């Protein structure tokens, strides 16, 4: 997710109207419903900056503790770490990611690595090539492979080997634009260039760590037709990968019933486990720093009648997401990673900007954990 406003571009709507939701419980039961989630985690990439700004976190009992320890004590077993190539000072570069990885490992957390292959935010609306990288496709094929290999090795060298790695962040519309941009302004679709870059990144990751699991991450959580369009092409171009990753923000990506339909369809259609790689939900429509938020009172939440924007409503939403994942057959709904649930006021999405998601966190504006933190428990 990018914290700046994003125009979410739809790819294909045709298959999205399939009325699967009424069938899903029986489908899952026929194949064996999971009783636990193997991935329960959070992207905490802003955490070091927030601590430097003076933010402190308290658990449900009011005890001050490092945020990663609060999540681990609640049952989390994964952290997701964002890496930018050359970001503004203080933001998520490799050195900061390595430092946070050491903290995470000490807390008993596994690692999902999220290289953006960009100097700053990369998402469906923008995927800029790092300024120091080549811009031609042959040069980028070499660079993404070598960069990924060395990045993964750096984590292993310090005793914090990764467990999973995404080849890019929310790559619905391509990667490393314009060379790997999927949809050019003139209507051209560059599937070959895009998928060649994915294959090169994957090779680099496995050269760095042969047992790392490869995630392909898009932002179409409840959009079945769009997901089919993307992964039908990915499989058609024979891109090897292990896990389908989705962002799911219901205000953009549909209802929980649509999410459930899409996850089950993906598992069955592609024979891959599915993971919610980004997830968030409001606990209030108030604005913690008074400087504007992406999600406010005018935001349409598809399941707001059941899950209003309150601490209890947020907690209920996370429980419902757990139930959706458990409906995926054979335990292949791996789990979820909340996106920056610690990002309360203190650090802007860019230098000098607002904390534009401070009402989507799992801590209140003072840093005290909210009831939704219980969603990380096992089973």
From TrEMBL:
Q: For this protein, what is the EC number? A: 3.2.1.89
Q: Which InterPro entries would you find in this protein's record?
A: GH, Glyco_hydro_53, TAT_signal
**PROSITE patterns the UniProt entry points to:** TAT
Instruction: List the GO molecular function terms.
Output: arabinogalactan endo-1,4-beta-galactosidase activity; glucosidase activity
Which reactions fall under this protein's catalytic activity? Answer: The enzyme specifically hydrolyzes (1->4)-beta-D-galactosidic linkages in type I arabinogalactans
Keywords, ordered alphabetically: Glycosidase, Hydrolase
Presence of keyword Nucleotide-binding: no
Q: Record's PANTHER family?
A: ARABINOGALACTAN ENDO-BETA-1,4-GALACTANASE A
Could you identify this protein by its name?
A: Arabinogalactan endo-beta-1,4-galactanase
